[in-house]
Amino acid sequence: MPGEDLPPGFNAARVFIDRHLAEGRATRPALCSLDQVLTYEALAHGVNRAAHGLVRLGLVRGDRLLLVIRDEPAFYFLFWGAMKAGIIPVPVNTLLRAPDYAFMIDHSGCRGLIWSDACASDVTAALSLVPDALPVALPVSEAAPLLFEHGPDTFDAVDAGPEAPCLWLYSSGSTGRPKAVVHAHRDLVATAELYGVRTLGLRADDICFSAAKLFFAYGLGNAMTFPLWVGGTAVLLAERPTPSNTFAMIERFRPSVYFGVPTLYAALLEALKTRSPDLSSLRLCVSAGEALPPDLFHRWHAATGLAPLDGIGSTEALHIFISNRLDRPRPGTSGCLVEGFEARIVDDGDHPVPVGEVGRLLIRGPSLTLGYWRGNGRLDVPFERGWLDTGDTYSCDAEGYFTYHGRSDDMLKVGGIWCSPFEIEGALIEHPSVLEVAVVGREDAHGLVKPEAWVVPTAGVSAGPLLEAALQAHCKTRLAPYKYPRTFHFVEDLPKTATGKIQRFRLRRGDGWENDR
Ligand code: 3UK
To answer: Mind telling me which InterPro entries this protein's record contains (predicted)?
Structure first.
């Protein structure tokens, strides 16, 4: 099993970066962005200089380095450079707000923070919110001359170990703060081999383009570890993906593999009604992040001749563990287990449910997180006797195809990205016109979930489009820009239990609560 036969002292940077020079791929393209193409040799040199530079600036083994970096070559240099030096890279979402970054700086105890210049305002505001100055805090424009452009071209990766922590990713929970999901060196190998190679069949001539950014576990595999594992090429786009820039990237760089999320497939399909970009380079399309409605599957297949392969992954598993296959995709399902993973579907008493029945999905496999960072080097291990509860409800048929039936908590996936209804409620309740609020998920015309707000306005405030616009604008300044409610209902009161708990299921159904003001 990949990941089980790795030598003691294993450092993933040796196989993802150094190996390619030893195997004669120095002049092959490793990554392309709008302004440059980097060969495997140029990549290795940038990584090695970054490793030297981070050490020169005073970072040491075990230190965390927060990276608020868009999809650009600097992400690769810093990520692998840190790993070579035994420093833990912690890529974080570039769309967050100052209080989110301040939390992560404090919680991670990081000693370094490097950010893309485009993210400067929220990151520098966060730095002013935390009590202590960090030894290393730089925008990429200042880090680049210090770290990537000078210095020795070689750096021997420090010895680590297959099970040694190598990477953290923050993932949102339904309540409370994001959790730092810790992954080991072997997890990168296991996902690239078991899903990238054995499930998708990725090869050295593949060019991978991902709508999901590198700071998501999904994007990190798609546009970095998978192409680097097979000696292929990644295509990077720094901007947020739109149909226009997606089509432009596909026509210019001719990727063979496209990794999207259902919301983007829906947007691309809308755009294809009025445009006919050349998508002929694609041989494989993947969808993940939230369930792909069968209608989108069929329409994408009709428009492009390619079956989008839906698969479910998670930050805790690092990548996809149940997936459709090119030779037998089944629309409306997440597909079958990826080699190396096991699943159990259980009822509330933790007993396996009969074939075809719905229950909680538990998984086991070779890339599951070491645990959540809890401070002082300790981890909270989210396992029940070795099994990880995904928080999803699933059924599995006699042929081994898994079907998604929703979350077992209140969390929403919007455009494939976590959205906590409680966080949106927390922002809305701070607005002076809001007396009470509840946020639930509502399916749009494509069957994709969007946040919907139910608001009781304060006395004397008139409900209507003006209030709605003001509340949306309020959310967009307080929260990451994708976390605003797409629709609002203004009501006299909210349905509650005898003990005063909001009955979200009634809001979701809308029964008796449609009498908007
Ligand atoms: C949901 C899906 C139905 C599901 C991810 C690596 O999404 C990824 O990681 P996150 O931690 O979220 C995990 C949760 O998202 N989900 C994801 N994909 C699907 N639900 N069908 C799907 N195809 O609730 C899961 O527990 O952000 C991480 C690689 C791929 C990924 N999708």
So the answer is: AMP-bd_C, AMP-bd_C_sf, AMP-dep_synth/lig_dom, Benz_CoA_lig
pLDDT in tens, 210-237: 999 999 999 999 999 999 999 999 999 9
| Span 34-90, pLDDT tens digits | 999 999 999 999 999 999 999 999 999 999 999 999 999 999 999 999 999 999 999
Spatial contact of 247 and 271, defined as CB atoms under 8 Å apart:
yes
In total, the chain counts a number of residues equal to 517
Dist CA 378 CA 376 (whole Å): 6
8 Å CB contact between 513 and 506: yes
The Cα 471–Cα 432 span in angstroms is 10
Whole-angstrom distance, CA of residue 11 vs CA of residue 25? 20
Strands 136-139 and 112-115: parallel
> Running DSSP on this structure, what letter comes out for residue 194?
I
Q: b/e map of 208-217 (b: 16 or more CB within 10 Å)?
A: bbbbbbbbbb
Radius of gyration (C-alpha) of the chain in whole angstroms: 23
Q: Are strands 308-313 and 284-287 parallel, antiparallel or unpaired?
A: parallel
Atom of ligand 1 nearest to the CA of 181: 11
Q: How do residues 479-499 score in pLDDT, each as one tens digit? A: 998 899 999 999 999 998 877
- Kindly tell me if the per-residue pLDDT of 512 is higher than 60: no
Identify how many contiguous H helices and E strands the chain contains and give both numbers: 16, 27
How many whole angstroms from 291 Cα to the centroid of ligand 1? 8
Residue ranges in 148-293 assigned as alpha helix (H): 185-191, 217-220, 226-230, 243-253, 262-272
- Using CB distances shorter than 6 Å, the residues near ligand 1 are 171, 217-218, 288-291, 310-315, 319-320, 334, 390-392, 404, 407, 413, 418
Q: How far is residue 139's CA from residue 219's CA, in Å, rounded to a whole number?
A: 22
